[in-house]
Write a structure and sequence with these properties.
With 229 residues, the protein is of the alpha/beta class. It has nine helices and twelve strands. 44% of the residues lie in helices and 22% in strands. The mean pLDDT is 87.
């Protein structure tokens, strides 16, 4: 796995580099935002580890710019802040996951492996459709009303799970198990990803497809399926 670390704390960056290389990965390192942006633009990586607080260009803006340029590799964001607002900012900018410092190097490496596996696919590929929302598993392209929707890899996997189950309700526990396996993060993580997915597939189009079922889970359904349920 080719990993780009963008981290200005040189001690932490060194530890990350040494650990990931010891795990057999190829690692490049940038210590500021502009340098990280240039490296991500010039080389294809399998995953990016991105610090939230960076000199020159902060992690939120850097992540947003990478997604705007179509760089869709998994991004795991590192932050010293634990509040939900900070996590939401990172996820809404395009990050797939986050870890709060101080962090476990073993957990970080495991999450990187999990995200790259999901990004590579491995499930049956076909065309899924709910209302006017279309997901093509052959090309990983998502569109609604003919307009292309760019999703981070983690959000793509979440949408695919919901579309495959549509119009049924998918319990939170099932989604967490499918996305994170036996080690899900705190309870805010799924809600944050659903929020970001809703911003992408519903907000620009007026008619909501993604519905929260209180105390149970989430449901993706066209208006006629929603009212008839």
């Amino acid at each position: 796995m080719d990993v780009l670390i963008i981290e200005d704390d040189r001690d932490l960056a060194g530890n990350l580099l040494d650990y990931l290389e010891a795990c057999g990965h190829r690692v490049d390192l940038a210590v500021n935002g502009p340098g990280g942006l240039q490296m991500a633009q010039s080389k294809a990586f399998d995953a990016i580890v991105l610090d939230l607080g960076l000199p020159g260009l902060d992690g939120i803006e850097l992540c947003r710019r990478l997604r705007e340029e179509g760089i869709a590799v998994p991004i795991l964001m590192l932050t010293a802040r634990g509040e939900l607002d900070d996590k939401l900012l990172g996820l809404e900018a395009g990050a797939d996951d986050y870890l709060v410092k101080p962090l476990s190097l073993r957990e970080l490496e495991a999450r990187l492996r999990a995200h790259t596996r999901r990004a590579a696919g491995g499930l049956e590929r076909r065309r899924l459709q709910v209302g006017d929302l279309i997901l093509d598993e052959r090309t990983h392209q998502v569109s609604r009303q003919g307009k292309k929707i760019v999703l981070a890899p983690f959000d793509y996997q979440l949408l695919r799970l919901l579309m495959r189950a549509s119009p049924a309700v998918v319990p939170r526990e099932r989604l967490e198990a499918a996305l994170w396996g036996d080690d899900p993060p705190d309870s805010d993580a799924l809600r944050a990803h659903v929020h970001r997915l809703r911003q992408a597939i519903d907000r620009p189009f007026g008619v909501p497809l993604l519905h929260t079922i209180p105390h149970i889970g989430y449901r993706l359904a066209a208006p006629d399926e929603e009212t008839s349920a």
